[in-house]
Amino acid sequence: MNPYLNPYVAKPNRYQNNANYKIRPVSVESRPVTINKQQYNFNKKIATGQFSSVYAAYRRSDNKPVAIKIIPAATKHSTEAAKMMHFFLNEIQMAKRLATTSNHIIQIYDFDFDQRTGLSFIIMELGQQDLEKYLSQRNILTPDERKSIWRQLVNIAITLYNHRIMHLNISPENLVLFPGNLVKLGDFGMARKFQQSRTKSLGNPVYLAPELNSPYHKPTVTAKADIWSFGAILYRMTYMVPPHHNSPFFRPPLNQRSTNDPNLLNILQHTLVIDPNARPDALWLATHPYTKTS
To answer: pTM score > 0.70 for this model?
Structure first.
């Protein structure tokens, strides 16, 4: 039995006029949990993020398998609580909007907020495993396997581009494989519209663009940050390790030779560059020979 993240729940305090909060452990694996009038049984934790955990579960009314993300929205600090609620609402809004136009976005079935425990729930479709687990189980990808996944990533890039959205947290952990090796993107909590700047991302630093990380921090972030992340994932699928953060970033690991595919190398050379303005956009990825040729 694994208690969840010990969310803080407000309780009266006769000495400080309700200013303090008391930690109340909440277990989701020991009993059915009611979410928006539906009961769910939790099986196991399948992912953990900085502010959330995801469980495999099933809906008791029809035994439908689902994934349930839990976000603690009650904390000791009101600013932190506001941030958690923003991530919760932002993910729902962005994902539901994009899923209507692309089969490569994880669908959200339902959501709810429990005022008693301070927990937010997002009910989603359940995949087989994330891309990082898939890659970690293999020593190498065949060129066909790599290109099949890459083309789906480009489809995601075009979907984001068409909706003028920056995801800002694209990584193999947030890409989920479904039957038939269908790839879908999730975790839209940090996503922003193009015109909204963001100075910091809390995603996986291995796949974050340099402008989102020190020492290359810039005050304004653009959609080119996601282009870096797509290139970094292609690097991961090519050399089976994440890219290093020493220029030139596209060069292979020390113990490996460079890819013999000039088109693939060209994408790495153009996406993994420090200057965001020097990176291409999603349309360039979609029309690139590596993406277009079989």
So the answer is: yes
